[in-house]
Amino acid sequence: MSITTTPLFEFQHVTQRFKLPQGDLTVLDDVTFSAQEGEFIAIVGPSGAGKSTLLRLINGLLPPSSGTVLYKGKPQHAINLETAMVFQNFALLPWLTVFQNIELGLETRMSDPNARRKRVEYYIGKVGLDGHEEAYPRELSGGMKQRVGLARALAVEPEVILMDEPFSSLDVLTSINLRDELLDIWSDRDNLLNTVVMVTHMIEEALELADRILILSRKPGIIAADLKVDLPRPRDKRDPAFIEMVDKVFSLIA
Amino acid sequence: MQSPQVSKIQTSLIYILLLGAVFGIIQILYHGGVHLTELTAENVTIKELPSELALSFFRMVISYLASLIFAYFFGLTAARSKWGERIILPMLDIFQSMPVVTFFPAAIAMFIGITQGHRLGVEMAATFLIFTSQAWNMAFAVYESVKAIPSEQQEVIDSFGVTGSLRFWRLFAPASVPRLVYNSILSWSNGWFFLVACEIIAVGRVKYQLPGIGNFLSRAAEQDDIRLILWGLAALISLVLLMDYMIWRPASQWALRFKHDSNSSEQLHENTHLNLPIPGFFLASITPIQLYANKLIRAFFSPVVWIFEEIILPLIWDLPHYLWINGPKAVTRSTKIISYGALTFLFVHFVILLVQLSIQLLTPPYPSILKDIPGAILVSTLRVVIALVISLLWIVPVTLMVWDKPKIRGYLLTIAQIGASLPATALFPLIILIGVRKFGGGMEVSSIILLITGMQWYILFNSLGGSMAIPADIADATRSMGLTKLQTWKRLVLPASRPALITGAITAWGGGWNALVVSEYINFKSELLEVYGIGALINNAVYKSGDTRTITYCIFSLILWIVLINTLLWKPLYHGSLERYKFDG
Any alpha helices (H) in B366-442, and if so which ranges? Predict the structure, then answer.
């Protein structure tokens, strides 16, 4: 008897078209790939290559125009509650406090308010937001807002976390800090979180974080390359192997 | 703003036509005596429809042009001078929140007094009233646009030494085009509402009639002729839509050129889809017909522009400037003395008038009606509140249903835009005829229905607009979290549409007070349909007792009440919600 591991999720001949006034636009064209549990996947590619679309297909925000998205072997028809998204521009509700924003996704999942509060408090601590529970988003810096976005996603304890250019609205120093913290959280096995799919347009960011890089191309919207990143962690940007890898990815995109 | 390319012959032809039309109308007004005094006994027929509609339209054009001149004069003065700002702005603000229709009966009385009973008095009162529904809003547009001119642009113009009317045409006029066009569309719709209201109010046992489409509709209703009413409505609606299509739509497209281009794509989006009360199906693109219409209109207006550019503006801007800067000292001094003298004289005169009026008002015996005023205002307020609540009761659920369905929302928005641009007052005769006469419903119910027809579109329009402004990523975020419908409504859609909903409610509230006066007191056949309230009180005072003091008391208390509610309730509510419930990325 052979052991076959079912992929965590799987794209089978997925095509995504959008109707535009100028005509149909095919963003993803017959894309097939699968992801295993525990992977940290980065999706890179030029703008308009369908990176965010791919993320939304995993989450179920978009139904594919054709083809199937499987989650744990089952075709997906609605929002997948085992996944949670982190958005480039944070997507926080301005009229809710930090606490309420993080609690939002839990309201449907946990009926016990006490357990819910504990959970929110735990993740507020995890992302370093202690003392800001009652603040409103507009009172926070960009980096703090993205911590709220991250905590909101983590708090539902998803199996997959989907990140759509999570650091590109932040200044350089803040994004370095937040990247390190994300790696800490991901490598900390206490958390249920162990699968991450992240869209980025920064090659170095992808190589610093991910185990695997999917390079999407534009017109046609296909997976141009699927690379394993075996560099040892923690990764050093000055490491010749790292630099070599950057060049390789760069040549594949350009 | 380039003057359009029109040949001299065309220009002179249009001039002659224009002059001829003006003279013709003055002739008719003075000597023609078109059903001037007594109620017309003959039945109204469909043959009168074109001329009645034309008359109404003409009234609108005159008032609009007057508003335009007013807007530029006062808007610019307020924007350019500290004193002007301090005096003009608060006045505009108060004027804007007043229920203008309330003044109509009083205005008729006044203008008829001035013209000694001549029909022209009613005509002037109507034009004046329409003007008051259009001018403030447009003056604000000019003021805010000129204030918003980036200082760099201002400095460039100054550094080239551009002054006077040239400065107006190169800087102020273009800068104010986008907002002015937008506010003109609102003013134009307002104007129709008031026009029809005036024409309806003037009907009845009063000796004075105002021929026009509103008059046509009321008389058709008195004849129990629903078909005639429908014809009248169809003609009016066609005219309103045609104006949208032929004038406002090309104008707002043209106005986009004058926008400062910082994040222009967003503003463009906002403008084409949200702000303009223009039906969606007109938005696709400009058609050749519209281009042609645009040409015609520009040809038509070129003489007006010419007069404004070559005569009025130089008089206002260049002459004082010339005298001030270049004139010999003696001239400067004498102009100063004369203008200050004139101002002082006017001011003293005004103060004396005010004192006289107060003495007259405050000396006993007080009219017995005085004690009725608070109660009447309360009842009327209740009526407006009920209409507001009923409107909200259907609009909020509809917004919740369609906020994430762009197609249906688009259709609804189109309906709301058309609804808001049609004068609700035009429906009054039909509603009265059906509601009160045919189904025997009480006037109380009918008056609230009348209010709702005047109020709901503003709320629907704003509410849908507010739900449209929800950023896509925030909508995605709540969806991806798997929030239930109920939670999404409570946490996202309701808070997000709150500022817009309040804006809509404020606009509707203002419009409601105006509809109120018409809806509380209607002459139907020779019967008087009225419900207790401040509107009925005012109309009664004007048409029955004719007591100026009572009228003044009623109007002053109503204004006071409305200003009070605006400052104590709506303004804080609006600012509070704007602060808390806006998306700031």
Answer: 373-402, 406-421, 428-431
